[in-house]
Amino acid sequence: MTAAPHPDRPVRSAxxxxxxxxxxxxxxxxxxxxxxxxxxxxxxxxxxxxxxxVEADVVDEAEIVISELVSNAVRHARPLSDGNLRVxxxxxxxxxxxxxxxxxxxxxxxxxxxxxxxxxxxxLRIVRSLAHEWGVTEDRNGCTVWASVGGPSRRRSR
Length: 158
What we know:
The chain is 28% helix and 27% strand. By secondary structure, the chain is of the alpha+beta class. It has a single domain, classed as Heat Shock Protein 90. A 6-stranded antiparallel sheet has the order 1-2-3-4-6-5, covered by helices on one side. The radius of gyration is 15 Å and the shape is globular. The termini are far apart. It comes from Pedococcus sp. KACC 23699.
């Protein structure tokens, strides 16, 4: 087994690869599995949602949620086989559903127990508090953590 690259070292160039569906209702980007990708994803997401005239509160919440999901993927999981993370979002009737797919980790993502003194471990609790629904899908190709902001998604939450 080969070791995964360190999250702070570039896997590839800092370029964000992007793609839109033909209906412009969804967007997928692939980013390097590293901490600096969090700000790249935030920027692309916010610009995209603003261009679709999504409500400002929903944009703000989606920005926080996607930041937590990408941060968690870098911190707690492995990259996909190409060394990247897959980030996808879609907008329908003012509801934004975001998802981050990684190569999986040692355990299924779950909110950490509530504690006042821990310096970290609040990411999924933040996601849970901002999202209308959220969940985890795991398969042999990796792990996807998703959340809907601004209303319910068509998925079943965990």
